[in-house]
């Protein structure tokens, strides 16, 4: 029983993909990270990027042959355009008591 649980947990981890930067990732990484994008479509993404330049918006993927709006929408949360993490600035609370 423990072996079955271990196997299932391994498959669950592989099913969860991390977001991918479509402007820097190789085809293998893109195909592993995005749902509905196999190796051939991922190679087309890389080729398009090399010929036309960097993607400016996730929706630009629809310019790649074989990739439609539904595929982009399904993967929108996993498509990155840069490696820079969004910076969140938290300002300290101001004390309501003034000295």
Helical percent range? 40-55%
Secondary-structure element pattern, one letter each: HEHHHE
- Average pLDDT, rounded to a whole number, is 82
**What is the first-to-last residue Cα distance?**
65 Å
**Proportion in β-strands:** under 5%
Total number of helices: 4
Largest sheet: spatial strand order: 1-2
Low-confidence stretches: 10-14, 86-90
Secondary structure tally: strands: 2
Largest sheet: 2 strands, parallel
Features of the shown structure:
99 residues, mainly alpha, two-stranded parallel sheet, 4 helices, 42% helix, globular
Question: What do these coordinates show?
Answer:
The structure is a single chain. By secondary structure, the protein is mainly α. It has helices at 2-15, 27-33, 39-52, 69-75; strands spanning 20-21, 79-80. Strands 1-2 form a two-stranded parallel sheet. Helix 2 (27-33) crosses helix 3. The longest helix has 14 residues, at 2-15. The N and C termini lie far apart (65 Å). Mean pLDDT is 82; it is low at 10-14 and 86-90.
